[in-house]
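BUG: 3D viewer hangs when loading the predicted structure for this chain

Environment: internal workstation, default settings.
Expected: structure renders.
Actual: progress bar stalls at 90%.

Input used:
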Amino acid sequence: MARDYYGILGVGRNASDQEIKRAYRKLARELHPDVNPDQEAQERFREVSTAYEVLTDAEKRRIVDMGGDPMESAGAGGGFSGAGFGGLGDVFEAFFGGMNGGGGGARKPRGRVQPGADSLLRTRLSLAECAVGVTKHLTVDTAVLCDLCQGAGTNGKSKPVRCETCGGAGEVQTVQRSFLGQVMTSRPCPTCRGAGETIPDPCRKCGGDGRVRSRREIAAPIPAGVAGGMRVRLAAQGEIGPGGGPAGDLYVEIVEQPHDTFVRDGDDLHCTIRVPMVDAALGTTVVIDTILDGPTELSIPAGTQPGEVSVLRAHGMPKLRSSSRGDLVAHLDIVVPSKLDGKQADLLRKYQSTRGNEHTEVLSAQSEHNSGLFARLRASFSGR
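Structure tokens produced before the viewer hung:
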């Protein structure tokens, strides 16, 4: 014989959803096991919870109105299923009046469709590629939309159904006693993982996830002026989200390869030029094969001292998203010959005899002469 679910809640057969809800709240306050530990009250609470589940489901209520029992037809047997202990959102609302602000007690389920995760890919660039910019064609292993179910996660024309564990809430609640009183905690439903629905007949290709792993080619435009460690963001080129959700972003991290001649410091380029002693004394011109400007002459003035620097303004790296550029800084290394033949030694002695009182000196590290190297280095970097 079909159970009288209307009678269990004490409402008429024409009761509205709101009237059924109010009746359930009233009975839940009286019969909940945390309020009334009596065994008979607990059994009565299970009956009330089952009746509420049946009468708030349109299809189950239709079966009741036709004289049937949806819980028996669903294989529930002669007893009550204990529904209402899986999702306590309405019980919580019955006690606390919907404290979450929406009047519905529990939060809404997050749904199956979720945004995709961001991805990270590293690519190596030469110094020249960093200077001029380049489009890199990369292969990425990522999550893409399932072409069989188009993200739905279902097999054929089947559809998701409400999760039986949480009743579609996406979370389950437990009430615990503590020295502060009754404490209610919520956690994502372990069956639907917070989606509020399950897929009884999942897609045979993606298993219900709505996406599959695949390798695909992308073209990554890298702007001029990037440096090692920088990341270029490619919007919506990351992983497709669960359920066919919007794709995340793809970040391409730059790994800058060392250059044979230049060392980069921010937007400036540094190199070392070995200058023979005679050229340093008489002055000379050297040609540097720069990154962006090709062969460029650098004048080394007569009397150049060891450790001095010579700067080519605006011959360094381009500044990112700017028309200006850094400098090229040439560090001058004066090369003194380590071996001389007799004729060369005689020439130097004759030169020495013309220099008057010049002789070797021992100076303090704080002397103006000896600190000139550091002063010149500071001046070269500050532009003075």
